[in-house]
Amino acid sequence: MEEGTSFAELLEANLEPSGRRFSVGDKVSGRVVKITRDTIFLDLGGKSEGFAEVQEFLDKDGNLTLREGDRVEMRVASTKNGIHLAKGIKVQGDEAYDILREAQQNLMPVEGRVSAVKKGGFDVDFSGIRAFCPISQIDLKYCEKPEEHIGAKYSFRIMEVKEKGKNIVVSRRVLLEEEREKKSKEIMAMLKPDLVCEGQVTKVTDFGAFVDLGGVEGMVHVSEISRSRISHPSEVLKPGQPVRVKVTKIEGQRIGLSMKALEPDPWEAGLPVREGEIVRGRVSRLTDFGAFVEVAPGIDGLVHVSEISYERVSHPNQLLHEGDLVDVMVLTIDQQGRRIALSIKEAAMKKQVVEEGGDQVRLEAGQILRGIVDDIKPYGLFVRLPQLGPGVRGLLPVEELSSSEKGDMKKKFPKGRKVLVEILAIDEKGRIRLSQKVMEEREDREDYKKFIEGDSKSGTLGSLGDLFKDLKLK
Prior knowledge:
This protein has 474 residues and is α+β, with helices and mostly antiparallel strands. It has helices spanning 7-12, 96-105, 173-190, 266-269, 344-355, 409-412, 437-458, 464-468, and strands spanning 27-35, 39-45, 48-53, 71-78, 83-86, 89-90, 110-118, 121-126, 129-134, 153-162, 167-171, 196-204, 208-212, 217-221, 242-251, 254-258, 278-287, 290-296, 299-304, 325-334, 339-343, 368-377, 380-384, 393-397, 418-426, 432-435. It folds into five domains: 7-87, CATH 2.40.50.140; 109-176, CATH 2.40.50.140; 191-262, CATH 2.40.50.140; 266-354, CATH 2.40.50.140; 360-439, CATH 2.40.50.140. The model is unreliable at 1-5 and 10-18 (pLDDT under 50).
C-alpha cells in the first residue's frame, strides 16, 4: 500500500458481492461507469447496472460532485424498467402518506427539502406533506446558522407519524450517525501500524491534537507533533487543518498517531553542527547530572554539570532554567550512540579569547599560553588550554611549578583559576607537559643579563677582573 493513500480510495476497493436480487429500499454500492446529461449509470456487480438522476449529485451551485470511476452508496427507489437508484425514497402523489408510514416501519430514508426555519427546528417538505426536524437533528455538529440549511435536499429518517400525517417528526442526524458508524468500522478494519494517511485536526488540547481520519479519530501526542521542541500543540496545529500522519499503535478504539515520524531524521540526513563549533541553543530539560540543550530541531545535547561553569556547581538549576538561551561548544558527537557532549564554560572561554584578540595557536614546544586549572592531582595540575581547541589539556607537574606557587596546591590552585604556562614538551601520544619553572628561570637569566649589561655601561661596579686588572704586586 502506498504512503498517503486516502481512505476514500481504500473504501472504493470494497466491491459489492455479485448475484444479488434488489428490492425497493435496499442500500447498494456501485461504481460510476458513465455520466450523461441527465443520468448516471452505476455498475452494481454481478452484471447488474443501476441508474440515477444527475440532480442527485449537484451541489448548491449546480456543480457535479462525482466523476466516472467514483464509488457511491444509494438506495433502490424502483425495480420497474431497471434498477432506479436514489439517495432517499421520494414521496410523490396521493400515496405520500402511505409511503411515509412504510418508510417509518422499514427504517428507510426519505428525501425531503428544508423549507423554513421555525422555533426549535425546521419545516421539511415531502411533496406537500410538512414535517418537523428539531434543530439538534439536522446535523452531527451544533447548528450555528440555521438559515444555511434552507432549500437543501436531504435524506431523513421518519421518527414519528401522528394524527394521520399532521404531526410528523424526522431526523437527519440519525442517518448521519449510522453512516459514520459504518464508515468507522470499515476504517478500523483497514487501520494498522505504520499506515500513512491524510486527516484533519478536530481539536487541540494541552497534551496533543485529535485528528479525524475519515470517520474515526486518532490522537497525536504533543511529543509526536514535531522533532522541534514545542511548548503547546497550538503553536503548530489548529482545528480544521489538514495533516499527514502515521499510525503508531492501535489499542481497542484508541489510535495513536505521529507527525514527527514522517519528518526526516537529522541524524541520518546530516547534523547541522560540528565538533569544536560554538552554537546557540535552548535549555530543554534539567537533570541532576546536567542540562539538555536543543542545538538543532529535534537534536538535544548534554551539558554535564561539570561543563556548566569553572566554579563548582552542585545542580544545574543554580545557573540554568528551562527555556534559557545559551551558547555551547560542541565537544564530541557520537553518531552511533546519537549523543552530543556540550560545554557552556568552554564556549565562554573561547569567546573571551576571541574578544581579547587571541586565536587558536599551533601546538608546539615553547608556546606560552593562558590556561585554566581543571583538575588537581598529588603529582600536579591538569590545565585546560582553550587556545588549542576544545577539551585540550596539559599536565603541569609539581616539580615544574614556579617557586612562588609551591605549597598547598588545593588552596593555591582552585578549579577555574587562570595560570600562565609554557609548553615544555609533547610526547609521541600527544600528551602535553607544561612548566612555570622554565619561564621563571628564563626571567632570572634575562634579569641577570640586564643587570650585568647595565653595570658595565655605568662603570660603577664590574667583574673581579675589572677590579684587579690595574693592581701591581711588589
